[in-house]
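Following up on my earlier thread - several people asked me to post the actual chain instead of describing it. Fair enough. Here it is, all 379 residues.
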Amino acid sequence: MLIKYGVNSRFTSLCSAKNRMWVSSSVLRRQHFLIRTLGGNRDHINTNHKTMQAIRAMSRAALEADSENILRAITPTLDPTRHKGQAGKIAVIGGCREYTGAPYFAAISALKIGADLSHVFCTKDAASVIKSYSPELIVHPILEESYSISGLRDEERRYISSKILAEVDKWMERFDCLVVGPGLGRDPYLLECVSEILKHARQSNVPIVIDGDGLFLVTNSLDLVSSYPLAVLTPNVNEYKRLVQRVLGCEVNDEDAPEQLQSLVKGIGGVTILQKGKSDLISDGEIVKSVSIYGSPRRCGGQGDILSGSVAVFLSWARAKQKSPIRFRTNPTVLGCIAGSALVRKAASLAFEHKKRSTLTSDIIECLGKSLEDICPAC
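Reply from S.P.:
Thanks for posting it. Predicted structure:
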């Protein structure tokens, strides 16, 4: 169903030459002289450049995922014999004093798509605010920030960390997917606790979608996700740039984006990356696919949080189908990313159609159900 995409052999040389200066003007003059001597001219250079651009455009088109059929294939039917929880139990790890909207957007998006239960593990300061947004969410006010434990001895801090981890562990085996990072912040003690949660999620074989400040955490501690096939990273432009610099030691190369993405995934080892952009690129190191459905020109904050919650649901549904008689050859993390990307783009387009410049994240969330219904009717 999905096409394998090989790594271009010249990508390695592109990265290894990251500090090399561009070809000097004298070299270019010698090249042009050689072309003229052989009977060519600068028009040939321009023609070749246009040809290469056309080839790249054709290659990108070949990468486009069949997203609607993937959505139909992995979205479960509404069956009256199923019980609560079988359509997905999602948990968001995030939310602190400064950021309460992001974890809410991720968690409520999961419910709007069709997950049965959505939890949020956040700090005490964020909990009452997030609860006030919606009674549908199960909120756990257990995370701590450095300010709340200042003055405590090291053993007391370790005791609090162990209590936090034990509380999350009580629930871990019930979850179909974790979303780590929306509204997390960068408090050192909080990130330390979340690092331990990530380690336990790996031990429990729970899929993890990492976004926002979760990406800041794993970029600086790649071992948290390295070689874990159920980890999905969803970086935006700046987060992707930091990952490329950290792992490949070079700058982002837009002309060879699919090859670079595949090399980045292999450099981290065993994860799936959804690179957000004008077209979303997705790779697990074996294949590269794109989702280019038109979304919205309105770039209101919070759309990445919708995406992380959406990918979590579709990833869990793809895994459930993989365990059933209907099996996919494709990595369920890739399917989840394609489905989540496509649905959020469709919902953004629908919201913008009605709200135009005043479109907000909450408007896109309200369009998730209608967008999925248009593709996968409930009845």
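Confidence is low (pLDDT under 50) at residues 1-38. That should answer part of your original question.
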